[in-house]
Design brief:
The complex is a heterodimer of chains A (about 300) and B (about 1100). Chain A contains eleven helices and eleven strands. Chain A has about 300 residues and is of the alpha/beta class. Classes of the chains: A alpha/beta (about 300), B alpha/beta (about 1100).
Amino acid sequence: MTTATEPITEYRSWAVEEFRAEEEPYYVPVSDEVEVFEAAWNNKIPVLLKGPTGCGKTRFVEYMAYHLNRPLAVVRDGKAEVESESNLPLVTVACHEDLTASDLVGRYLLEGNETVWIDGPLTRAVKAGAICYLDEVVEARKDTTVLIHPLTDHRRILPVEKKSQLLQARDGFLLVISFNPGYQSALKDLKQSTRQRFVAVEFDYPPRETEAEIVQHEAECSYEVALNLAKMAEKIRNLREHGLAEGASTRLLIYAGRMIAAGVSPRRACQVSIVWPLTDDGEVQRSIEEVVSSIFED
Amino acid sequence: MTAQLVEEAREGLRQFPPALGQEFETALEAALPVLEPDELDQWLRDGLDIARHSLRSWEAASEYFRASGPVLEQITYDRMREWCAVGIDLMETSPALSGALFRASPAVLPHLSVSQANDWSAQGKSLYKGTWKSGSLSAQYFDVSPQILPHLPLSQMRLLVDLIDSLASHSYELASACLGMAPGVLSQLDRTDRAPFLEFGGIVAHTAWVDARVYFERGPGALRQVSEDQRPRYLSLAGQVAMQVGRLGHPYFIEAAQALSEVDKDIHEGLLELSEQLAGHSGDAAMEFIKSSPRVAQRLGIDDIARWQEFGLNILQQSRDGGEAFFRLESARGEEVMEALSSRVDLDRVSELIRMYCKALTGVDVGVKASEELTAKGVGWVDESSPTTEGTTIYLPENVERYPTKDENFAVYKVFATHQAGRLEFGSFEYQSAINPELFPADQNGTRNGHGNGVAPAVVEGEEGEIHTDMELFFDQFDDRRLAHDLFTIVEDTRIDTIVKREYAGVRRAFSRLQQAAIERRRPVEDMPARQAMVENLLRASLDEIGRIRWPGELAEEMRAPLRILNRIRSEGATVQDSAAATALLYEWLSQIPNVELDTEDWSDFEQEMSGDPDSGEDSDMMPGSGSSGLEESFMPFMPGSEERPYDSPDPVDFRGDFKPELVQLLMKLKGETGSGDAPPIPLSKEQLQELLEKSVEISINELMDMDLAESSGMFLDNLLKEVNQIQGERQEGQQAMGDDSTGADDGEELPVEAASFYYDEWDFRAADYKPRWCRVQEQRGESGTSNYYTETLHEHTQLVQETRKQFEMLRPEMFRKMKRLTDGEDYDLDAVIEWYTEKIAGATSETKLFYRRNKVDRDVAVAFLLDVSASTDEEIQKHHDQRQDDQFDDDPRKYLSWWAQRRAEAARHPGKRIIDLEKEATVLLIEALETIGDKYGVYGFSGYGRDNVEFFVYKDMDEPFNDKIKERIDKIAPVRSTRMGPAIRHCIWKLQNTDAKVKILMLLSDGRPQDHGYGRDRTEKEYAIHDTKMALTEARREGMVPFALTVDRAGHDYLKQMCQDMAYEVVADIESLPRRLPALYRRLTG
């Protein structure tokens, strides 16, 4: 369907299962999580990433996908071509409360006079042998667990109900799910029957110096600013469960760092990218602002 | 001739009672020598004329004669005749008055000129209305005139007479009493105040005559409370107000004067001027303004008061009520404006903020309280105004008003708090003897007295149970504990300040400002003996002010070494261990400095060459030991008498506050907080404590109280043990409560008969802090009755039940209804596909929206429904009587009787409904509705008495299925006792927290304001309970729940507005509509 005068696109697009990082994603290992993940992947054990929001779970998966090499086979026009040894494709699905099984597996669509089956992202990942990363999986509707269970045990099978098919996952396929035990209520938890199919890697905010390093790199600000941001985050996280549902995430620190690097005054930058996103409670806001103003001279 | 005249007169007088004759004789004796014969003649004639005038006029004549002698001593006969003519004129009105006039004359004459006689008489006469009572009042006027006139010129006497006259029109007794009091009252007043006093009195007599006596009794006293030069002004203001407010005028006068006595006299003038401006608009406001002034003046200076008043005046002009409430300090606006204008920062306003700030910095749960609270405990801290900490709580002064703006004053708080938090964060209390300092390694610092590197000897856990804190053992090494402690304080504070400034660059400026201010206040070093001066200089150095060090130039070297030691503590990575080591080194040095007056003129600013690099200077310099055979020798030339002076500690530095590491470690140890977490608290005998105390220099018991040492230290010990026990007690209770929680959460099983206990904090808005574990909530199942009630209620409201059910069913389909005609969805919608296909075959182009999707799987709502079952719900509801009914009987008694009988029978069948009945009905209807819709819900009731006994009834728990048991319990919902809402709400929050739902609603149905024993300062105080309830509701919201308050109290608006602020609430004005209203509301909330 390409025409002769194809407009110059300013965006790039991939098929879901073909997306792979071209540059190495920036990730600073905090502990042995890289080794653990690699071992799990080698042994086809699905991985559960636990940790607060914005502490680097997604980035970690990207990083791992980049580093886990395998011969890359691209399915094109029904023929498998071995292109080169390359990193793993990564299919990321952000789960939300209306996400259903058919959103993951696929559905029939009308096209002209016929119906066309479109694979969902999970199916594509299974076929392509990609890492499928279901972010915040507890948010998804309960029927998705029906899909997850057979995929995560020894069978590695994806039932495609509408087509009455079973798909055996290709080598390299790995299901990775993440969830944040903090901000859901204790009851909105993963069911034991689901949890116990994964090895779990716990994430927390990195230690001050590491976090400063990350912020400096990502925000392209000075190390001094980054260190101050990290220090501040450490202080703010002390307020978790005391007015704050969650501490300031590394992601927010990076935003703040970028704002500062872009010339916004540090106190203001922290206010807009940390204090206000974190909470609406006026008193808590002021407390955090006092912490900010203690750390940053303006 | 003369004798004959006299004889004739005697003759004439004989027809009168002999008393007159006697008076005549006495008078004659005085008159004869001074009167010319013709004057005598005239005098006798006048006397006789008076006597003969009318029936009882001889009495007046008697007074005339009696007065004559004394009068003639003062004035000539001619003048006397003029004077007496006035009296004689008065005969026409009443001889008794005339007599009174003559009687008073001798004493009055010194104060009046003869020409004023007429006026004087006329005033008295004006009181006479021809009645006996008025006559006696008028006579009283003449009688008291001699005592009044010394205080009051005749012209002003008019004011008094008018006042008395006005009173007399109401009560002669009162008028007479006041007139009698007048001389005494007037004599108490300053000359200039008397007329204004009477003028205001006149207004009082006019507007509130019954208050007149009180005014005379208490007025002068009240007035004395007002600044002398402002009293007339105050009186005229009070008068102006009284004209407007009538009866309230006098109470205002008294109360406002009382209020003025509580403020500085210098601002009375300003206050009165401001009040006068208000008086033009509202007398109430003017007086309320003055009454509030003591509280306002605490916060604001007079200039700001004027701004505050101006703000209030604006409100007053728009709304009288609003303005008056503003000045009565009963409006949030008034407080806000005051707060905004005041530069003072009050701890109770910022404590929560500072608490979170400190928690953020330290990462531990610190409390923030007023220093007073710590000193009140009597456990060793005595200074009420300085910041400090005892390891778990940071104590700060109650308010800060040091600088002209709020921000600056808050910055002071922040510095205080940051320094104290720094002690906790950077481990000032974590000294452990077993750890070696890193900056001051043991091997570098040769040890002379065995305490060279600050490492205390290994802990000897000597006898059984004997404990020592490491800090104590450290100080034990030094002979002079006070010096050691002072040095440690300086070193450690230096360390903390340095780290704080390094870590928290943002507070640097405020820090430096306070350091600067602290240094300005230091006493001059030059007056101090040598050792003390050196300690003082170290302290100055610790405040980053090398330039302020003063020291004799010849001895510069001796000062340099200790400064170097102190400076080293500023290195990065310094710990409290290093501080201890530095202390030991400094002690070593300083203990060799004789504490003598230095005889030198050579005090000069100390040149500091090494401020930059703390590591410069060789280590060998740090010790006094090597080589220098003795510091004393260097000092020899400057020691005149070499008389050793006792050592005094340096003045404390305000922003650093009290530092008591030894005591903190002791407290921590006693509380069992140090060492391995689970170690049981170590019991300590009184004797051991006593011993500890005797050693400790920090606890200067003498400061505690003026008692003998044994007594006060005994008291101190008691307090300390009490404090520790209290904490341990709380902890044990806490464990118990945790146990209870687990049983409470047990589902399925019936609850045990005895209530499960839960503990909750209560919000004290005055302290701006929670009272920890203040309330005990006793959870219990509601009693069971029969399920008939439920069925009957449904039957009674069949119509309504059906309606409600229908409405709720309308909510329901949404969750299952497919959203059709989508381009993408879960599956094809068959209808759409067929339609599309037909159209396609027919050749029409149509949209390919063929999918459906079920958007919402669950309606995920949980509601905790909290019923107020306090005693007040027992009240019957006032039915609206239809007056017209009574008129329909046309005075036919039979008709009326039959109607009445019918009504009684009706009443017997349906007794008047109580609030609780309607609550129950509403509950039944809501349950029906909720069952239709399938939401999770719990029905609870609360009541109780006192904080230990908040009863919490479970009628249906969140996870209980609805069945007959629930119906039976609803039957037994009955009024119990008081209304302590806070803990009940908090318990509900807990229930909801343990329930899984996206939307959580907490619905509170009450019949009045929260109220309970001890829920506020006294039974009548409403503020406290409302604040606590508000806080509980806010907590619910912070937990992501939707609190909703519903009341059937018509007066509910005033407190609900305050309680709920931006939360939703509703006042159900027509209580009988509650069963209908409640489900409707719920629908609206969740729909």
